[in-house]
Structure formats: C-alpha cells, structure tokens
Amino acid sequence: MTIVFTLAAMFALLLIRVPVAFALGGLGLGMLILGGFSPLMAPQAILSTLDGFILLAVPLFLLMSNTLLRAGVGNDLFAAVSAWVGHWPGGLAVATILSCGVFAAISGSSVATAATIGTVAIPEMINRGYNKRFVYGLLAAGGTLGILIPPSIPMIIYGFVTEESVIALFLAGIGPGIALLVLFIIFSMVYARLGGQEREPKRDWAERKRATFKALPSVLLAVLIIGGIYSGAFTPTEAAAIGFAAALTITAAMRVLTWEKLKLAIFDSMATTVAIILIIAGAKVFGKAITLYRIPQDISVMISQGIDTQLGFILVVTVVLLIMGLVFEALSMVLIMTPVLLPAALALGFDPVWFGVYMVIMVECALITPPVGLNLYVIQSVAKTRLGEVARGVLPFLLLMFLTAAILYVWHDLALYIPFKL
C-alpha cells in the first residue's frame, strides 16, 4: 500500500502543477518525517548531490550547446550537409537528420539540437514542398538523437545515480544512436520517393568545398569531444570544459558570436542548470525516503516474483516508462526510475550499461509524447504551429524508436560492443 500512496501523492502534486523538483523534495521530506526519520537527512542528501564532480559536465555542456545555438552554427552545418546529400531522394530530410546527428555529438542536449537545426531546416523543407507534419515530426524526433549520441546529459545523470562509468555509457550510446539515425534516413528516403518529392539539383564541387569549409570547425569539435573521451585523453567533465572553450574560440574566430549572444547563452545555461540541479536535489531526497521505506526493494521483489523472464521485464519497463513519460520530463524519469528498476534488472542478468542505454531510448520517446514532450514544444515554438500538428507528425518516428529498442534487446552488442569488445 505504501507504493500506491506514494505514487498517488506524486501524481496529485503534479496535477496541481507543483514543480517537479519541489514535488519530489517535498514528498520525500514528508515521508521522512512521517516515517520517524530525521529530517536532517534531506539537507544531507542535497549536499551529497551538489558536490558531485561529474555534475560539472552538465552546465559546461549546456554552455557549449547554447553558445553554438546562439551563434547560429546550425546554419553552416545544415548547408554543408545539404551540399553533399541534397540531391538524394528526400535529400533535405536526410541532411536534416545528419545535421541533428552531428550537432547531437557536439551538444548532448535534445532541446538544443531540435531548436538549432529546426530553425534552419523547417522553413527550408516546407518551402521545397515537404509535408508539414512530416517536417515537424522529423525535427522533433531528430532532436532526440542529442541524448543518445554522446555526449548525453541523461547518461551523465544515470552514471551519477548508478556510479557506472560515464565514458562506457557514452560509448554504448554510439551504436544505437547510429542505428536510429540510419532508420530515420531510410524512412525519409522511402517517404520522399513514395510521395513524389522532387530532388534538389546536385551541387558542384566548388560549392561543396565552400560549404564544408564553413562547417568544418563544428565537425572537428564533435571529433575532438568524442575522440578525446574514447581515447581516454580526458574525462567527460574535462571534455565538456574543453568543448565549451573550443566553441567560444570557433564562434569568436568566425565572428558570429557577439557579447549580447554570449550573455543570452550564459543566462539560458544558468537557468537550465539551476532547474536540473533542483530536480536532482529533490529526487535525491525522494530517493532517500523511498529507500528507507524499502520501496525499490519491494518493487524488485514484486517484479522478480511475478516476472521471471528478461523479455517480460523489458516489456513492463517499456510500458512503465512510457506512462511515466506522459507526466515527467526526461531527467526526472531517469532520477526516479533508475533506483526502482535497476535492482530488478541486475537480478535478471541485465548489464547496467546496456540497461542505461535502453532507458535513454525510452526517455527519448518521452521527449516526443504529449503532454510534456519538450521537443514537441520546441518545434511548435520554432514553426509557430499547433501542438497537435507536431504530435501527429512524430508517430512514424516514434515507431522507429520502438524498433531500435527491439533491435537493442535482441542484439545487446549493439550497445556493448564498442565500450567492452572493441
């Protein structure tokens, strides 16, 4: 019954629009007091959260992505990719997906990826006759690559909660990220061919060289970050700091970053960082309380007694995370559900790194499902359209994300080969 009352209280607080951070922290504190535990555990839990070295990567990656966003780096990136693949069937759609993939490898942020590439690609694709719903769905779903292709802020949080290697999680996200990107490209090309979409004229070599040269610094930045992490040259936190310094250098050298834009980037990063830290702090208090009430252990026992197969467990996890995604945003889902689901996953023999990647894919789905799918609101804002138009457009891409999750379940090495076997 404790589980039922806890969930009911949580949903009640969210329904009356209490911010997630305060709903989690307040409920956790209330549970500590009602359970006869010292309320001093709450500030102690918060303090232990805020001194985590790994969390330094979050504001630094946000600074990097917001600096690139404000400097308009997405324009050059999209133009360069379009110059090479624009003449393919569905060339602009393919260019959009590839641009999302490259920017995801720079920023680690789904929202920044959707906003940056969407600002450039949406008017371009609609002007060339692409169906609006398809365009909106493509950009909303393409933005989710930002939290799967490393670096990834949700993976940093998962690693922080589970004390797993963030580098291993980053590397494990590469295979599924590429698989999802390829599925998006194949679908876009088939959609364009069946829809009779006209191809773009093939660009000459001179135009390709010019566009590539302008976008080359952004591509090199992605290579620097991923290559440095993969080679062990620096930690994820150091990679974030180096990436931010490199982003400042690149945008300053290209003369596309003004003091006003830099101030806006810093302010946006600060506001997002504060929100993330508050959610983490609230989730830490809530996590402390449910641990003392033995709720994760009870759920783990309940699952292990009722479900004795890996497939059954994964189906339950998928349904639970999809339902949670209707009311929780990405980081809250990772923070709340990881301590609850991971013990049962380990008991059934799942690798914790693999399970983290699977959770991130499900979190991606939450980013494009109403009513709190952040990417839906980002694309709605950029395109100045109705939320329903964006939500209907993401449906085929949501199915492709489920397909990626199914492939990952059948073939664990899609995630585990690069970090552990390569």
Automatic annotation (TrEMBL):
<keyword id="KW-1003">Cell membrane</keyword>
<comment type="function">
    <text>Part of the tripartite ATP-independent periplasmic (TRAP) transport system.</text>
</comment>
<keyword id="KW-0813">Transport</keyword>
<feature type="transmembrane region" description="Helical">
    <location>
        <begin position="47"/>
        <end position="65"/>
    </location>
</feature>
<feature type="transmembrane region" description="Helical">
    <location>
        <begin position="264"/>
        <end position="287"/>
    </location>
</feature>
<feature type="transmembrane region" description="Helical">
    <location>
        <begin position="103"/>
        <end position="122"/>
    </location>
</feature>
<feature type="transmembrane region" description="Helical">
    <location>
        <begin position="390"/>
        <end position="412"/>
    </location>
</feature>
<feature type="transmembrane region" description="Helical">
    <location>
        <begin position="239"/>
        <end position="257"/>
    </location>
</feature>
<keyword id="KW-0812">Transmembrane</keyword>
<keyword id="KW-1133">Transmembrane helix</keyword>
<keyword id="KW-0472">Membrane</keyword>
<feature type="transmembrane region" description="Helical">
    <location>
        <begin position="356"/>
        <end position="378"/>
    </location>
</feature>
<dbReference type="Pfam" id="PF06808">
    <property type="entry name" value="DctM"/>
</dbReference>
<feature type="transmembrane region" description="Helical">
    <location>
        <begin position="167"/>
        <end position="192"/>
    </location>
</feature>
<feature type="transmembrane region" description="Helical">
    <location>
        <begin position="77"/>
        <end position="97"/>
    </location>
</feature>
<feature type="domain" description="TRAP C4-dicarboxylate transport system permease DctM subunit">
    <location>
        <begin position="7"/>
        <end position="408"/>
    </location>
</feature>
<dbReference type="InterPro" id="IPR010656">
    <property type="entry name" value="DctM"/>
</dbReference>
<feature type="transmembrane region" description="Helical">
    <location>
        <begin position="213"/>
        <end position="233"/>
    </location>
</feature>
<feature type="transmembrane region" description="Helical">
    <location>
        <begin position="134"/>
        <end position="161"/>
    </location>
</feature>
<feature type="transmembrane region" description="Helical">
    <location>
        <begin position="330"/>
        <end position="350"/>
    </location>
</feature>
<dbReference type="InterPro" id="IPR004681">
    <property type="entry name" value="TRAP_DctM"/>
</dbReference>
<comment type="subunit">
    <text>The complex comprises the extracytoplasmic solute receptor protein and the two transmembrane proteins.</text>
</comment>
<dbReference type="GO" id="GO:0022857">
    <property type="term" value="F:transmembrane transporter activity"/>
</dbReference>
<feature type="transmembrane region" description="Helical">
    <location>
        <begin position="299"/>
        <end position="323"/>
    </location>
</feature>
<keyword id="KW-0997">Cell inner membrane</keyword>
<dbReference type="GO" id="GO:0005886">
    <property type="term" value="C:plasma membrane"/>
</dbReference>
<protein>
    <recommendedName>
        <fullName>TRAP transporter large permease protein</fullName>
    </recommendedName>
</protein>
<comment type="similarity">
    <text>Belongs to the TRAP transporter large permease family.</text>
</comment>
